């Protein structure tokens, strides 16, 4: 089966920057699972996977507009230190998680005060051309429940309790 709308795709990836440095990978972990064609994956990654079958390995170099978006200048916010997640002590340049109305968001700490921090709310990888080395592990038909819920279930997907 090939990746198409309403199929569940499981894949492994390695993300590289413009110089080929590895930024992140899920190699050695469970594959990522998503419901294809339901806005659950970065547009560029989904486009690169579309029409591919299990066992395929490939690389896709994608512009910022197809991954984390373009950088928006002067996109700074002041937030309470207690809202920064990911470390006990914060310094400028560190990446933190912050809960927003749209879910968790990665931010970059710009300045740390006693009670407040100034953060750049652009994703740390925004504005960059990135290369994804992808291995398709499995492609299967989505269940009716997955289609109704709008996401993949099981290993690498959404877990319901």
Fold topology:
Blueprint: E1 7-16, E2 22-25, E3 32-35, H1 43-49, E4 57-62, E5 76-80, E6 95-100, E7 103-112, E8 116-120, E9 130-141, H2 144-149
Antiparallel strand pairs: 1-2, 1-3, 1-9, 4-9, 5-8, 6-7, 7-8
Assign a percent range to the helix content.
Answer: under 10%
Shape: globular
Count of structural domains:
2
Order of helices and strands: EEEHEEEEEEH
| Number of contiguous helices | 2
End-to-end gap: 29 Å
Strand residue content = 35-45%
Question: What is the overall pLDDT average?
Answer: 92
The fold-level CATH name of the largest domain is Chitinase A, domain 3
**Backbone CA Rg:** 18 Å
As residue ranges, the low-confidence spans are none
Task: Please report the total strand number as a whole number.
Answer: 9
| Name given to the CATH architecture of the largest domain | Roll
Most strands sheet: 5 strands, antiparallel
Protein structure class = mainly beta
By CATH reckoning, the class of the largest domain would read: Alpha Beta
């Amino acid at each position: 089966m090939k990746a198409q709308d309403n199929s569940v795709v499981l894949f492994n990836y390695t993300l590289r920057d413009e110089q080929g440095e590895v930024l992140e990978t899920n190699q050695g972990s469970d594959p990522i699972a998503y419901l294809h064609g339901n806005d659950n994956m970065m547009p560029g990654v989904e486009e690169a996977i579309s029409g591919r079958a299990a066992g395929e390995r490939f690389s896709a170099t994608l512009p910022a507009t197809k991954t984390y978006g373009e950088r928006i200048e002067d996109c700074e916010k002041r937030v309470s230190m207690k809202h920064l997640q990911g470390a006990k002590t914060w310094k400028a340049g560190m990446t933190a998680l912050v809960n927003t109305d749209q879910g968790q968001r990665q931010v970059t700490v710009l300045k740390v005060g006693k009670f407040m921090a100034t953060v750049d709310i652009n994703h740390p990888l925004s504005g960059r051309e990135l290369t994804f080395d992808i291995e398709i592990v499995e492609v299967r038909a989505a269940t009716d429940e997955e289609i109704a819920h709008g996401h993949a279930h099981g290993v690498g997907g959404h877990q319901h309790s």
